[in-house]
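QA checklist item 7 of 12: single-chain prediction sanity check.
[x] sequence parsed
[x] length recorded as 345
[x] structure emitted
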Amino acid sequence: MPCYISGKMMLMFHISMTSGNRSYQLSLPQIKSMFRMPYWRNFPVWLQLVLFAFMIFTFFYFGDSICLYILPKATGYTIKEILTINEASPSSLVRAALIMQGILHICIFLLPSLLFGYMTTPRPAIYLGLRKPGKPVQWVLVLLITLGAIPVLMGLEGLFEGMHLGKWADDAQKAIEKMEKPFFNFTSFGDFIKVFAILALLPAIGEELFFRGILMRFMKKRSRNMIYPIILSGLLFAIAHFTVYGFIPIFMAGILLGTIYYLTGSIWCSMLFHLLNNGLQLIIVYMAHDNVTIRAFMESNHLPFYIPVTGAIVFVISFYLLWKNKTPLPPQWASDYTELSKKEL
């Protein structure tokens, strides 16, 4: 006999089992729960870390396979040619290298973070920090903090480059710059958009979910305060960028990103800082193609003293205002079972 339901009524599978005078009935959700895998938050922290590491390795292997076997056939360039691009490389080869950069970034940072959040909790967006800031003014303050921090961080990097830590450091820095420069030879606005998407937008999302959304959360599970998780996640963030003279500035940027996430309670704000930090530098490079003054300023590789000083003033004032308007992450934010999540059990 057909059964018609509407509104808030729930479809039921009635399974009647007679045992003496007893009768049992199972609902559809109950049947599904019998075959559902437990969320990974039910596992010990060490096992969650192992699963996350395994997920990173699996996606990296998948992305690496695409780059080794599919990308060369799709672009017509060997993997060796793609890995050895320089300023004289044709634009098609540079695009192939850019595609490889995007594939690896998605597979190493973005996909593992999103999938781990999905497998760990019924509320992956909240787990990863994808909630709006506590106060709208925080968007503006993060913007100002970024504008102030960029010249300070650039000045610090220039200062460390002037120290010349040795031939090995100079050679390592030159190798990094040799690989990066071809991406900045924009021939059109369309090329700029592609580079902006891969080198600014994608890292802002993927790296923040990875380092702040996942790793900083893991570190907080074993810490009573936020100092160590912020510092350690910032350290790993700097190590992952493989640069000698930029290590300290990137480390400081990582600490600032973690602090912004903590003070606003929203990873969207740290994503905004990350996006602006990478994106504004790309915009300046793009503008330098048609502006002699900006080009000369960039080629000098030296910031006038007043620019970092002005940036430091803007940064200190903006950060103070953010601190006064903070809506920090709750003390138990890293717990797998918050008061809200306990209601889901």
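[x] summary fact logged: Confidence is low (pLDDT under 50) at residues 1-20, 340-345.
[ ] second reviewer sign-off
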